[in-house]
Amino acid sequence: MKPRPHAELIHYWADGGEVQKWREYLVEDSKEITKKSFWQDDPSPTFSPDNLYRRKPENKNYYRVAKFYNHKTGNYYTVTQDSDPIIKQQSLEDMDHFNGWLTDWIEYE
Questions:
Q1: Which of 66, 73, 76, 102 is the most exposed place for a label (fewest CB within 10 A)?
Q2: Which helix (H) or strand (E) holds 105?
Q3: pLDDT tens-digit profile, the chain (109 residues)
Q4: Alpha helices for the chain (secondary structure H)
Q5: Cβ 88 vs Cβ 66: under 8 Å
Q6: Total number of domains constituting the chain
Q7: Is the pTM of this model over 0.85?
Q8: Which domain holds residue 104?
Q9: Are residues 52 and 26 located together in one domain of the fold?
C-alpha cells in the first residue's frame, strides 16, 4: 500500500511539530510581473497533495548581500540584510533601487 502524500509530516505535525507551506504569487508593477516564492508557517495545514510542505527549520542567523543602483548618481552600493530571510528578502526586493542579490543566505553563529 502506497503511503499518503505528506504522511510523515502529518504525523510530525500531529505530535506538535511546526510545518511550513511553499507559497508562490505574482507581483505586478509598472515595469514587470515578478514571481515571489517563500516558505510560510502554516499552523493549520491541509496537507493537500498539490502543495509542498516541510518541517519548520530551527531558528538560525542568516545574512545576505543585496546590490542597489542609485539612479541619480549612477553608482552601485551594497546592503547587508540580517536574519529572517522571508520578510527581509521581500522588503529589499520591493525597493526601487534594488538591483539583485550578490550572495545567497549565509548562516552564522
A1: 73
A2: none
A3: 888 889 999 999 999 999 999 998 888 877 888 888 888 999 999 999 999 999 998 877 888 899 999 999 999 999 988 776 555 556 788 888 999 999 988 888 7
A4: 7-14, 85-93
A5: no
A6: 2
A7: no
A8: 59-109
A9: yes
